[in-house]
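[Archive record]
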Amino acid sequence: MRKVLQAAVSQCVQGGLLTTLGYYRSALDTDLRFALENCPRRDIKRCLVYVNKISNGRDQRGAGTPKEPPLHPYPPLKALSDDSLLSQLCDHFLPSLVTSCQLLVYTTTSECDPRHGYTPARRRTYAEGLCQQLYSDLLALIDSSVAMGTGKSVSSPHSDDALTREQAEQEELCSLYSRLYDNDRPEEEEVRSYLEQRDTQHPLVVLGGPCTGKTVLLAHCAQQVSSWLSDIDPVVIIRFTSLSVNLSPGHLLSSLCHQIAHRYNRNPEPSSRDPNPTLSQLRHNLSTLLSLCPTPKQPLVLILDGLDQAWPASGRQTIKCLPSPLPPNIKLMLSISPTRTNTLHTLELHFPQSSSAVFGVSRCCVSVELGPVEGRVCVRMLAALLEGSGRRVTSGQQGVMNMALISCPLTLYARLLHRHASLWTSASEVTDETLPVGVHSSITVFLVHLEEKHGLVLVSRALSYLTLSRTGLTEAELSDLLSSDDEVLVGYVSASEPPPSKFRVPEVEVERLLLDLKGFLVKRTVAGSHVLFWISRHFELVVCERYLSSWEMRDEMHTAMADYFNGRWAYGRAKPLVISQNTGLNQPGSVPNTARMKKYIDRQPLGQPYVFTSKPFSSSSSPSSEHVRVNLRKLLELPYHLKESGRLEELGRGLMMSLEFHQAMLRAGLLWDLVTLLEDWEREGASQLIFPRERALLAGILRDSACLLWNSPMELSMVMKVRLLPFLGLCPELEGYAEEVTQGIKKRGSGLGVVLSPAPSTVPSTQCLFPEARQCPVTDAAGTVSGTVVVIQSDGSALVWRGREAEELKLSCEPALRFVSVRGSGTFILLSTQCNTQLLWDVTMCFQDVLSLEGQESNSDQRSSTIVEGFLMCDDRMCVWWKGLSYVSVSELSTSRRLTRLQCQNTVRSVSFPPTGQFVYCGQEKGTVSIFDTSRGTLTAICSSPAESSIISVILSEDEREMACVDSRGHILLWCVATKTDPKLLKECCSGSSHFEFINTDLSEESCILLVCKTQEIILWDTCDWEQWDHFRAPQGKAFSRALLAQDGQLILASLEACPSVLVWRMTTGQCVLSLDAGSPSQPLSLLKMESVLSVVTQNGHLTTWDLDVICAAAMVPRTGAGVREVVLEPMGERFYVIDGSEILWRWRLQTGSPETHFLHDGPVEKLCLSPDGSHLVSLSGEDVYVWRSDTGQNLHRIHGSRATEVLITSNGHIGVCVSQRGLSRVWKLASGAVVCNIHLYLADAQVSPESTFLLGRRHGDLLAVSLWSGTVSKRFSCSERYERSTVVAFRTLPEHPDFVIVMAASGSVYTWKVTEETVCRQFLLPQMFLCQPQVFHMSSDGSFALLSTDDDLITLLDLPHARLCRVKAQGPVLKVCLDDSGRYAVYICHPPAQDNGCACDLHTKPLLAVVRLADGGRLGRLCLCKTPTALAVSEELCVYVGFQDGSVGVYSISDITGRGGAVRERIQGIGRERPCQCDIEPVQWLPLATPSITWPKSSSEMT
């Protein structure tokens, strides 16, 4: 640094800029004043100020107090002499600047010897120290500036920040393009005339070919609107859609809604909070804003440029979402190329009142056609450009250029000619043949010049990188990419010297190239960074044609850019460079392999973390002042280049299934973009991406949790713990994602992890709202195996949904078709029209490939006669039957003709068309089934039922030898049809009540189960022997509307009348395990089960879709039969027991996360106690006490007559105690059941002393200690006999101090009672407001902490060693709280705080689980339980067990720097591994003794 300063001063002295007479005479003073006087505040903030005071220096200027900054403005530089410039700068200007901007100032004082003054040695010492400090501060400043320039602050992570940032970028583009408006054009007046009209309700369309200036004209007009409409205050919103980062129509409409609401100071619609709203929702939001916001005094001018240049169909979809006609006080201007006929046609249909004007039929002026400007205008423009750059041309050269401009009068061409002319001399010969004509040829000549000047490799690579980038590149990124490019770097390595270990392309080479591109390559702001981009897209076209003509070259460069933004070669990682040892690097021709060597060189590119963390350059700054910024450049560029380079595996695993990437996207406010990326609703090969189920699951979780993540992106880890882990068995590819979640706890050193996930409360889904469904309700719906859903609305329109957005089914060959019904089979959809025709559509093909079939031949005019009841496909043939008709039509698809008509006796209700295709079985009303031979078209046989009930379903065996018919009563008729001409009735199977209305049937061929659904019951049949297997009743007061089988018959899916949800039952237990929200308050209209998807369509247009495998994964999570009441833990933590109020005691194994054993009782289990070693367990059920061996499940004793309310086991595991409130309490031997003694007194809150000597309990306000050997009272503690007249309200024994008991009195006194010596010590008196609550009181085993009470959201604890009260404030009212045994942590469950936005989702309304460290009050972590908890327990292994109302159990681990392992750590390591299917692994059931083995006699008091 010192050498640099010395060299700079020497050059300034030699050049006459710096005199040796004195520093105050230097031109540096003037430069410093000029640079800082009008500098933006953000630049001044980056200044470094160093002040060195010299004490006892000989050459000091006059000392004295510093002068105050002047109150008047600083005099201009010209008014200051050289002598006064330094004085004014040091005494006034710089101190005032430091004070106003609060700059950091380094001040040092150099003490000099008065005899020698400020010597060169002392000056050198100060200079060395200054250089070291300056170097350190510059590094910190660079780091801070890089982070600030490449990211976004996360201090305000709201997603609106991203939209606000994008709005500023669009306004900057408008200013940039408006500066290119060099020539006044007559079309400007046409635009002004349109804006000044008050009553127009149609848009203005600017039409023009390439390079005609559509974008520049609209940008200029946007700048002029305020001056044109000076009497009002118009709001101008302009969007350059082709230059947006996100080109989807959804993003464009979201941005427009945000800008309109922001400019008119309105709050957004509640539906706009959806992170990924549908187009129908956005259209509704936009229409609402446009109808409410603009006023006559503040109209809206909306300008959409380049709407036709986004990805296919984007412009057309955007136009369809605009209101037609336009509401009052709105002006809409669009620019469209005349060659985009599809976009123009869409505009014509959407704005019929203006279509004639657009296409030139009407006199109404709503279109502006831009053509080339006049040649003389371009000539004047070129002359002005030459004059501005100080260049002149000869008359001959001018004439040739004038002729070229007349033949190609485009402003871009004029700018290119100016660039060519700047290279000519007066001797340059310019002719018509040498001068390029046209924009593309001129760009090509310009690139050739750059290649000659800078080298082909550098130019081609640099321009290719700029062109292939998604949003442009910063200068630093371009330099890094060129340095990482071997072909570029090899040209700068000397052939005579070995390359250094660190080497880059010289920055001056890159700057020289960018300087020559100035004017065509400009800077704009994208995501907070200044990036380079082409001012005209024609440069991109020429660059692609010249340098990127091969896909291999594009893939190579996309790969290089992906490696760069992924930071592959950053942080000192050297990249190999192949160099030549013999012939030199620049030697042409091939070099033998023996002459090549590989050298690893550090190219020193910038690091690319997801988040930059920078500290201010002040050494005294605190850690809390760190700036955290998201690397938006990486988030925008990396996914794009990975996809374009074909690295889909890395894209899927490294980004789409990466918690770090998701976290960065959320912190940047890009939740909407993240969901879109996961769903891959973009143009680039959506079907090619891998991991579709995993991506859909993550997208669904993010969408369902958007209300929380919108404002709290750091809660992503918590959300994934709760909602992702239950599905890891289904999606093992997400194991790495789950590992990132757990690694986050390890990095922080503390947290709350998930060991065992409870049953999820919700299942991720995809939702869609069909447009105009409120005015035109849905009347019919059908689906295909591929998941395509087609719905019919009451106006006859048909809408198609194929994964994200619904689109109207329009056929170009049939205008204005109106549909009345739709049916699905396989991949085919059959639509019936009002004109008595049927259209068959294979959904794997486009709309236009629709097959028109002949309609039914009925002469009836009734609409029902045209409705298709159903159809079946078999190879090239199709059977169709109609509602209310008595025949079946067989058609051939290849020829689209009818083969035969099968006439039946009665109305056809069902048809079976087996794969052989020879016979058709037609079920009819009046209980008949007709068998037809399709090859001959003849009737073979008729099967008749005596009951004459309609045959609803016909089911054939695989060999077609047996036929089962289901009639409208739900009965089964089994026929032998081995001989088609002579069928025989084998048996009739009756099912349930015949009074219940029949609904539907469903068959699971894999499980051989037939479901028959009636209004009040569901009956299951075994199709192997046709015996009734099981049946389910509808909930009380409800009726089934439809039921289906799922997952090979493991689940039953059913919808109920007047119920907006779909209920899921487990087949094996009959337990309702899930409730799927259909997203609408109305009852589902259609329940569609497709190959792997369940879809529900409601009448008001809501479509909700679930993955059936995900539903199964959620339904099969283990749970008990009822809500969990208590969780009892084994000492080692490997197993735990669950009481749910039923006759079953459940034992779960933590390793498997499921129940392994059932202990069956004859009545509901009320209490449970485990022996300390876990070998025995004692349960209480009714009046019987059960003693079990935990390892074998043997019921050792069943003791009757105890009348106990509580069971206890001593610490040695030999003695049991039955505490009875109504009779004798008995002490008995666990091994034999023999009674040791009886206790005649009832002791409340009874506890066994740690040494197994006494039974302690409260009675009549005193604390008694009863001997376990004699049953008599041995010790007594009474408050009234000692310090005060009070009663004992709570007490606890201390296992680590077995002689002592902590006693709490009603007055607030806290005592320690030494039982053995009967000594008492009154510790202290609690304040009245902190009195103990007995039902809450809990204590650690060592007596260090006691849990006293809860009051709303406050938890009161007592720190006994320090004699102090502690209060923990929870997030909401506390429901449950407990301490861990060691007294280090408090675990509580509380209600969440109320939300201002009124969100009613599980994340905001269900309780929270939180852990607090008692030593310092630090919060270790929290989790949203998303369900209603009913039990809470904490193990010695620091695991939290939570039981839920739905019977599931969640286990959570407390991590805090150090932990203990055992079974818990093994279980944590097993997270993500697939669980075995719970339907195949039933818990072992242990039966109790049939009769009591021991009966205790009743005492005389019990007899009375």
In short: The first strand starts at residue 49 and ends at 55.
